[in-house]
Amino acid sequence: MDSLLAPLLPGLLVLIVYLLLAARIKSCTRRKWCGLLLSSIGLLVLIHSPSWLQDLHTYPFASGVILMGWLLFLDRNEYRRARSNTPAHPLWTAPTSNLAPNFPTDALMHQLLQLLHEEIGLSKHQTLRLDTAINLDFKCEDREVRHFIQVFRQEFSVHSGDFKARRYVCSPLTEILVKCRLLKCRQKIPLTIGMLYQALKNRRWNTRTLEAL
Questions:
Q1: Is the pTM of this model over 0.85?
Q2: Which residues contact 38 (CB under 8 A, 6 or more apart)?
């Protein structure tokens, strides 16, 4: 009986892991990168696995991991935001007393604020200005800012240009060391709403131009 079940165990394990990942990962970007990572791991295992691993049903397991990765990658677009169905942010349904004077209120700024609210969260009690820095003035972690930038570039097709994330946020490793109080994060350059808005209008990131705003 055990000899009959043994070949099925890798497939069952891969199926369980896939169902868990598919149920928990709802972000288009995360599904894409998770799918590519799993496919790469499966290919590496297939190519470089030593002979003794072949006795442990490595090939079926690795093939299942590759398949799982491709399934996550291929259905990622089903989890792309439907902008037309997104409820309006409270700033746009209530009196706009917490928007600074001369703050843009066009459709592009509307979409940008919606994305900020969905990915990071906007406080109804904070007055928003073009020089409000999402990496300094918002109560969010660097990983949230990094994820927001990825989604921002993907959702609005903004070319990354000469964008360097390390100018505005700590690297993942540095962030861990800072939390453990083993390292001090260097001073960050403000990443402002005005910079994001101008990059959205230009569909391209130009560091010198945007930081001079």
A1: no
A2: 65, 66, 68, 69, 72
